[in-house]
Structures are given as C-alpha cells and as structure tokens.
Amino acid sequence: MKVQYLLTFMAVGLSMAHHGRHIKRDSGCSTICTAEFKPVCGQGSDGTPKTFSNLCQLKAANCGESSSSFVLLREGEC
C-alpha cells in the first residue's frame, strides 16, 4: 500500500515539474518564485492596482504572455 502511495506521489510530482517547465518555456520567463507571502502592491499599465503575494510574482507577471506591465507601488497590499 505504501508503495502505491509513493508511486502516485512521484507521478504527480513529475507531472507538475513537467508542466512548470512547459509554462516557463512558453512565456519566455526563467523566474521560479517561492510561495513566501510578503505582499506588494503593483500598478498595471492600465493604471489598475493589483496585490501580488511577493515581488517575484510581480516580476513574473511582467514576463508572461499578458500584455500588462506592472510597476511596484509599495510593499504591502493595495
């Protein structure tokens, strides 16, 4: 039974790792962000503020396929 759980866990992990590399390659982004919660407030190119979970997430949003570009306004939530 433990072997079955281990194999399932490994299959899910490999699937997630492959999916992450695929997204990174498509978006042209080489940034891998941690799950650290240290919110920052960014402003989009359309003037709309948006809270990101950390600065890395804001930078990653700028290198994705989105047409928006975000700048850092301040630390903390918007």
TrEMBL record:
Q: Look up the domain of life of the source.
A: Eukaryota
Start and end residues of each Kazal-like domain:
23-78
The signal peptide here is 1-17
- What keywords were assigned to this record? Signal
User: What residue ranges are annotated as transmembrane?
Assistant: none
Q: What is this protein called?
A: Kazal-like domain-containing protein
